[in-house]
Design a protein that fits this description.
This protein is mainly beta. It has three domains: 178 residues, no CATH class; 151 residues, Porin, CATH 2.40.160; 156 residues, Galactose-binding domain-like (Jelly Rolls), CATH 2.60.120. Helix content is 9%, strand content 50%. The strands form five sheets. Strands 1, 10, 11, 12, 13, 14, 15, 16, 17, 18, 19, 20, 21 and 22 form a 14-stranded antiparallel β-sheet that branches. Strands 5, 6, 7, 8 and 9 form a five-stranded antiparallel β-sheet that branches. It has a five-stranded antiparallel β-sheet with strand order 23-26-31-28-29, with helices on one face. Strand 11 and strand 12 form a beta hairpin. It is globular and about 70 Å long.
Length: 525
C-alpha cells in the first residue's frame, strides 16, 4: 500500500509513524482562511537518479519540467496566490517529504481559477452536509515512483501519472472531503502534483445509487505494519462495506485509538475516494473475487497528537475478496516506502484482514445514510470539533444509529459541527439532543448545563443563542433528552434556507473523569 502526505492530515499514520523520521506528523498549516482556488504554473527540477552521499541520499541529476497544479489560497492577490503555490509544490515538507534535497530549481506563478469550473466550495472545502452526494471531479495527476536500489536509494523513477476516468467512474461524495483530497494518489509519495480541471457538484450525469449490499466489519484485530524490524498492530473499532453491482462503492473503517512512537493517533477513519471495481469472480467459486492492484484508493483522516492529519493510500497488489450471503473477508499484503531518520527509503509491509457479516437493517441504514443524517446522528467524530474537550466515537450506549459522540473534559466545552445545508429540512418548534450524563459527579447539587447556538454566515447569523437546559436533577449513567425551543430569530434563519449552517453545543460541566455522550440531534415538537 502506498501512502502520500501531499495533503498531510492523518492516519493509518501508524503505517508511517513507526519510522524514526515520523514523517507527516508536523505538516505546514494551509493558508487561513482558504477561500480561492488557484492554478499554479510550476517549473521545477525533479531528481532523475540518486546515490548515497555522506549525509544520506543525494540527487545526481535533475530534469526541469513544467506542470500545472491546483492549490487553495486565502485571496486572489498575487503574492498570496504565489505563496500558496510555493507551499504546495516547492517546499520539501509538503511537496516532497520523502527526500533530503530540494527541487532545483522551483518557481511558480498562481492564477485564480474559473469558479464556474472549480468552485471554492467542493474543490477546496467540502460541500455542506446534506448536499447531493453525486459530484464529479476531473483531474490530471503527476507523480513518480521510486525504483529502490541495493543501497536503499532510488536508482531511477517511474512515471505513475494518471488522468481521471470519465463519468460515472469519477462520481464522488464531496460532503466529507473536498475534491483536492479525493484525487486518488498512486505514487510512492514523490513529486505529486494534482491538477483539477473541473468539479461539478450535483452532476446530473452521475447515476442515482441503486439498492446496495452492505456488510458490517467485525470489530477486533485488523492487521499489522512492519518496518525496520518493528511491528505495530492496529484494530478495527467499527466498519462497513457497501457494494453496488460489481463495485465496492463505500468502505468505512474506524481505527481504534493507539500510540505509535510517542504519537497518539485518535479518531482515525479510513474511507475510499472512488468506487473500486471487483475482479471477475472465480467460476468454480462465485463468492471468491478480489480487487486488482491500484484499484482501491483510500483516504485516512483523524488526529495525530490532537492535530488534524490526512493520508492517501492505494493497494499496489491484488486484494483477495470473499463476498457471499453469509460472510465477507477482504485481505491482502501491501507495501510502501517510508523514510528513516537518515533520509533513506524505508520499506514497510502492511497485512490486513477485514472480516464481516451481512449488515442488519439498522446498520445498513447507517452505512448508506445521507451526510446530514450522519452529522445530526453524531455518527462520525470527524464531523465535530472542540478546542477544549476531547472527542471520540462511542458505539455503546447509543440512542439511535450506530454511533454517538463522546466528550471528555471539564468546564465550558464548546463542540462545533461542520457546515450543513438546510435545504429539505422539516422544521418543528424545538431542537432536541440526547445527552448521556456519567456518574462520578463531584457535586450532586450541580451537574451543569448545556447550551445550543446556530451559525449561518450567509444569513448573517453568528452564534445565535437557542437556549440552555440545566442538568441538575437528571439521572446519571443514563441518557436524557434535552429540548431547546427555537426562538423566532433562529426559526427565521433556518427558514431562509442557508447552506452554510453549523451547530455549537456547549457543555458546562464538572470534572468526572468519565465521558459525556451526545446523540440524536433532531427537530421535535
Amino acid at each position: 500500500m502506498k501512502i502520500s502526505s501531499r495533503h498531510v492530515m492523518v492516519p493509518v499514520v501508524l503505517l508511517s509513524a513507526m519510522s524514526c523520521a515520523n514523517r507527516g506528523m508536523h505538516p505546514p498549516p494551509p493558508p487561513e482562511p482558504v477561500a480561492t482556488v488557484v492554478n499554479c504554473n510550476i517549473t521545477r527540477g525533479e531528481c532523475m537518479a540518486e546515490s548515497l552521499g555522506p549525509n544520506g541520499p543525494q540527487c545526481d541529476s535533475f530534469q526541469t519540467i513544467s506542470l500545472v497544479g491546483t492549490a487553495c489560497s486565502s485571496d486572489i492577490t498575487q503574492p498570496v496566490m504565489d505563496a500558496a503555490c510555493v507551499a504546495a509544490f516547492c517546499t520539501r515538507q509538503q511537496a516532497n517529504p520523502l527526500v533530503a534535497y530540494d527541487f532545483q530549481p522551483c518557481t511558480v506563478t498562481g492564477t485564480a481559477a474559473d469558479p464556474t469550473n472549480l468552485p471554492y466550495v467542493g474543490t477546496c472545502v467540502p460541500l455542506p452536509a446534506g448536499s447531493p452526494a453525486t459530484s464529479s471531479i476531473s483531474y490530471q495527476l503527476h507523480q513518480r515512483g521510486c525504483v529502490l536500489g541495493e543501497v536503499d536509494v532510488c536508482d531511477s523513477f517511474t512515471d505513475d501519472s494518471i488522468s481521471s476516468p470519465p463519468v460515472p467512474a469519477n462520481c464522488v461524495d464531496l460532503t466529507a472531503l473536498a475534491a483536492l483530497n479525493k484525487v486518488p494518489i498512486t505514487s510512492s509519495d514523490r513529486d505529486i502534483v494534482p491538477h483539477l480541471t473541473q468539479v461539478i457538484p450535483n452532476d446530473p450525469r452521475c447515476p442515482v445509487p441503486t439498492s446496495p449490499l452492505a456488510y458490517d466489519l467485525t470489530p477486533g484485530p485488523l492487521g499489522q505494519a512492519t518496518a525496520g524490524g518493528t511491528t505495530v498492530a492496529f484494530s478495527l473499532k467499527r466498519g462497513s462495506a457497501v457494494f453496488n453491482g460489481n463495485q465496492l462503492t463505500a468502505l468505512s473503517i474506524n481505527i481504534a485509538d493507539l500510540t505509535v512512537s510517542g504519537t497518539q493517533l485518535t479518531n482515525v477513519r479510513v474511507t475510499n475516494t472512488l468506487p473500486a471495481a471487483l475482479k471477475v469472480g472465480d467460476p468454480d467459486n462465485p463468492s471468491h473475487t478480489g480487487i486488482a492492484a491500484k484499484n482501491l484508493n483510500l483516504v485516512a483522516i483523524g488526529l495525530a497528537n490532537g492535530a488534524p492529519q490526512i493520508y492517501h493510500l492505494q493497494n499496489d497488489t491484488d486484494l483477495d475478496l470473499i463476498k457471499s450471503s453469509t460472510t465477507l473477508k477482504l485481505s491482502g499484503t501491501f507495501h510502501l516506502l517510508d523514510i528513516d531518520a537518515s533520509g533513506r527509503p524505508l520499506p514497510v509491509t502492511v497485512s490486513v484482514t477485514m472480516p464481516g457479516t451481512p449488515a442488519t437493517a439498522a446498520s445498513s441504514a447507517c452505512a448508506t445514510a445521507p451526510s446530514r443524517d450522519r452529522l445530526f446522528g453524531f455518527e462520525d467524530p470527524q464531523s465535530w470539533s472542540s478546542t477544549v474537550g476531547t472527542l471520540s466515537l462511542v458505539t455503546s450506549p447509543i440512542t439511535q444509529g450506530c454511533g454517538a459522540l463522546g466528550v471528555a473534559g471539564q468546564g465550558f466545552i464548546p463542540v462545533n459541527s461542520t457546515p450543513f445545508t438546510t435545504a429539505g429540512l422539516t422544521l418543528k418548534p424545538a431542537v432536541s439532543v440526547d445527552l448521556f450524563i456519567p456518574n462520578n459527579q463531584p457535586n450532586q447539587f450541580y451537574l451543569g448545563a448545556v447550551q445550543m447556538y446556530l451559525t449561518c454566515p450567509s444569513a448573517n447569523a453568528n452564534n445565535e443563542y437557542i437556549g440552555q437546559v440545566e442538568l441538575t436533577g437528571k439521572p446519571q449513567n443514563a441518557y436524557s433528552t434535552l429540548r431547546f425551543p427555537l426562538p423566532a430569530q433562529v426559526t427565521g434563519t433556518l427558514n431562509a434556507r442557508p447552506s452554510d449552517c453549523s451547530w455549537t453545543i456547549t457543555l458546562n460541566v464538572n470534572q468526572t473523569n468519565r465521558t459525556w455522550i451526545l446523540d440524536n440531534l433532531r427537530f421535535t415538537n
